[in-house]
Design a protein that fits this description.
mainly alpha, single chain, 23 helices
């Protein structure tokens, strides 16, 4: 059978199976068998089993599911489930609220900032939306915030986990396309930051133009004054610098004392240790003599809720960007760090551990079945000649480079409205990325293009993640709406939730176009 007919059957079959509610993993696996039979005949299933095309398909599935990087996925999910059930996130929210509650729209800004920190801790999407829905939504509704603004802020900010490292979406993209995950993390930092800043700017501008959207809470005696926020903020910065300098001194002395230095002498020379010790002493002196003991203690009391989250971010991202560990090891260290913090906070229980573990098993099982089914379907379609057919179809349209990319973005957005990101990256990337790599690199964007294969792969991965940001909010199956609905008050309906997404989807599309037209944004920290 010709590949055009197979492609049509595959498209209609996928839409039909998803419409009747068949899970994506099983739908993909079933269609993989259909494609193989249509291309190679029914005898393929009954003769020479385990050889030929089926053997190639099996090797492809085995290679994906036994990848070492894949181990990081359940570890990050486990970390997110632990955070969701501990008081770490709630303490962080209370701390941020104390600093921002006298700012117009401050509680919504706090929600966005909290989402950024949570995304940098675990890279999970659904858990963030649920947790923010439990903590932030009741608070904003109680204070009289506009319902649409509150819902949109929670869901849009909660979807930042697809962009901000350690994003599981980036991990899967790197795994499927054989792209450096470390480079993807470096490239996604600036676009993720831009998206978060756009959300916060929108909240501040809109609430100041229309104050009724975000009424200020009644002042309390315990509210921090502007002077207190200033002095406490300086004190917290000095504390952080002093602690970091002290750690560097301890590290240098330890490595020197036990003769553990081999080739990398960074931060271990006597001159560096002396400078770090002087800096630590200076910070201590500033806190004790200039800021004062009472202000220092008060600053700690009003800022300690951020210590645990920032420590987790430092442990996970610091170990990755510092070249200390790989992605998988960093995920393991992060999960252990969260578990230890929960124990030290006195929140640990076997019930908490069991529930977090069971939810991790369920989420990981779902992802693995989708991975197996979608990998089988992508492999079968590749063996049938699908990538070449799609490439010739797109090239045959005789469109400019930007036109080809816009078609791909539309395909991502359309599929994202009906399908989870896991299936999209597994099914579509093996087809689209080779086409992108064959386009003239100097014609990508409007600012001079890119200059290497790695840069193109990384840039396209970031573009894909921004598309998934949009899909997470897109009706009819935008995941954020259903996650929030599970914890929202009964009077908030799904149509209400989707209506709240519109301005934030507009912001996401603006950032998508910015990265599409100015690809150099993704290469600022790429080396």
């Amino acid at each position: 059978m010709d590949i055009g007919t197979i492609s049509l059957v595959l498209l209609l079959g996928m839409l039909l199976l998803l419409a009747i509610g068949m899970p994506l993993g099983f739908a993909s696996g079933f269609l993989a068998v259909v494609v193989m039979v249509m291309k190679f005949g029914p005898d393929l299933l009954f003769s020479n089993f385990g050889t030929g095309p089926l053997n190639l398909l099996g090797q492809r599935i085995y290679g994906i599911t036994t990848s070492y990087v894949l181990v990081s996925v359940p570890l990050f999910i486990f970390m997110a489930n632990l955070l969701e059930r501990s008081g770490i996130a709630r303490d962080m929210y209370d701390t941020l609220e104390a600093w921002m509650n006298r700012t117009r729209g401050g509680i919504a800004v706090v929600t966005a900032l909290m989402a950024v920190v949570m995304a940098a801790m675990s890279g999970i999407i659904g858990g963030e939306v649920v947790l923010l829905g439990l903590i932030a939504l009741p608070q904003m509704l109680r204070l009289g915030y506009d319902q649409n603004l509150a819902i949109g802020t929670i869901c849009a900010s909660g979807s930042l986990g697809t962009m901000i490292p350690p994003s599981i979406v980036l991990i899967f993209y790197g795994l499927i396309t054989d792209t450096s995950i470390h480079a993807l993390f470096q490239a996604a930092f600036v676009p993720g930051f831009i998206l978060a800043v756009c959300y916060i700017a929108y909240i501040l501008i809109r609430t100041n133009l229309k104050p009724s959207l975000a009424p200020l809470p009644e002042p309390k005696d315990t509210d921090l004054t502007s002077w207190q926020k200033s002095i406490y903020g300086v004190a917290l910065i000095v504390m952080i610098v002093g602690v970091a300098a002290t750690i560097m001194v301890a590290r240098g002395l330890y490595l020197n004392a036990f003769d553990l230095i081999e080739t990398d002498t960074g931060g271990t020379t006597s001159g560096f240790i002396t400078k770090a010790a002087v800096l630590a002493t200076l910070c201590g002196s500033v806190l004790w003599f200039a800021i004062g003991r009472e202000n220092t203690v008060a600053a700690w009391a009003n800022g300690k809720g951020m210590v645990a989250p920032l420590l987790i971010v430092f442990v996970v991202l610091g170990s990755i960007y510092g070249g200390i560990t790989g992605i998988t090891e960093a995920a393991g260290i992060g999960a252990m760090a969260v578990l230890l913090l929960i124990i030290l906070r006195g929140e640990f229980s076997w019930a908490l551990l069991r529930e977090a573990s069971m939810r991790t098993f369920k989420s990981t099982g779902t992802i693995m079945w989708v991975t197996i089914g979608a990998t089988a379907l992508a492999g079968a379609y590749t063996l049938a000649g699908g990538p070449s057919f799609v490439a010739n179809l797109i090239v045959g349209l005789d469109l400019p480079t930007l036109g080809v990319l816009l078609i791909m973005m539309l395909v991502f957005l359309f599929m994202g409205a009906f399908m989870d990101w896991t299936g999209i990256v597994l099914l579509v990337m093996p087809v689209f990325l080779p086409i992108v790599l064959k386009l003239p690199w100097d014609e990508l964007g409007i600012t001079g293009g890119l200059d290497s294969r790695l840069a193109v792969q990384v840039w396209f991965g970031v573009l894909f993640c921004v598309n998934m940001q949009v899909s997470f909010l897109s009706p009819p199956f935008g995941g954020a709406a259903f996650y929030l609905k599970s914890v929202a008050p009964p009077h908030i309906t799904l149509p209400d939730i989707f209506k709240s997404f519109l301005p934030f989807i507009g912001i996401q599309i603006m950032v998508l176009m910015l990265i599409l037209l100015v690809p150099q944004i993704t290469t600022l920290f790429l080396h």
